[in-house]
Amino acid sequence: MDFREVSLTALRVFRAVADEGTFTAAAAALGYTQSAVSRQIASVERAAGTALLERRRDGVRLTAAGHLVLRRATDVLDGIDLTARELSGLPADGGTVRLGWIPSAGAALLPRALTALRASHPGITVTTREGSTPELVRALRSGGLDLALLSSAPPFRPPDAESPALVTRTLAERGLCLALPASHPLARRDYVDVADLRGRHWIAAPASAGDRVMGVWPGLDERPEIVHTARDWLAKLHLVAAGLGFTTVSASLAPVAPEGVRVLPVRGGPQEQRRLVLARLPGPLPEATERVAEALRAAVVEGDTLP
């Protein structure tokens, strides 16, 4: 089969699988059946004459050939999308920026940045997508996102080991804190000692491929007892307010924690710092994307000055 005969649909499906990390997730995102996704991927691999995806128990990973095909497919699909916008009379860059963000960024930073951007640059449209750091990195690599707000923990390695390296900028570095019920005896203190965390009930996000368990204090010398799982940070904090366990949050979320929750630092162990990182693919930035990046940086600075 000649690779020049690969359909645009097959290329879009291939990019979606690379973006989502599994056939199942790609099918859900596209509104296809999983068998339809499998057929399209098979057609691309037949045309390439080699495997483009490494099938693993936790999803798929691009082979070296897959990375090459993904780069070329992204160029083709972006060109087609650009042509469609130009034909419809829109500006060449469309004024649209696709932004990914980790859940904690959606509480205060994201609304603050987008509100300011709407006032200063009303012609820019921002579409957003929430996800874990590994999910958002895959979306950047596949061309599904223009910018992504990621979380980074010590030793603060690059988001992935792929080439070319992502361009990253640290927007903030803050300590990890403990969220506990305001009615709990430990909440009467100004901080919690790490030794007091033994034997506690935890509220955490479900583990996902390539991501750590979020919500349990790192480095505990015991197997944590996770009694509730939730991806949404606000749901976790409301479970904390109900007295159902402890969870961890960034210090930046303390001002927006619901009533009935205290957010305290933890002492007695290694300092747990977390960075908020803005990431993108290398290359020149369109003006609209640069304006969004500036709005995010300004919103972080504004947040640091709020009481």
Task: Quickly list its features.
307 residues, alpha/beta, Arc Repressor Mutant, subunit A, D-Maltodextrin-Binding Protein, domain 2, two-stranded antiparallel ribbon, 36% helix
Could you characterize the architecture of this molecule?
A hairpin with a 2-residue loop joins strand 1 and strand 2. The chain has 307 residues and is α/β, with parallel strands linked by helices. The mean pLDDT is 87. The termini are far apart. The relative contact order is 0.15.
Helix and strand sequence: HHHEEHEHEHEEEEEHEEEEH
CATH topology of the largest domain, which one? D-Maltodextrin-Binding Protein, domain 2
Q: How would a crystallographer describe the biggest sheet?
A: 7 strands, mixed
Fourth-tier CATH superfamily name of the largest domain: Periplasmic binding protein-like II
Strand content: 15-25%
CATH class of the largest domain: Alpha Beta
Figure out the total of helices.
8
Number of strands: 13
Proper CATH architecture of the largest domain: 3-Layer(aba) Sandwich
Briefly say what this structure is.
Helices cover 36% and strands 23% of the residues. It is built from 8 helices and 13 strands.
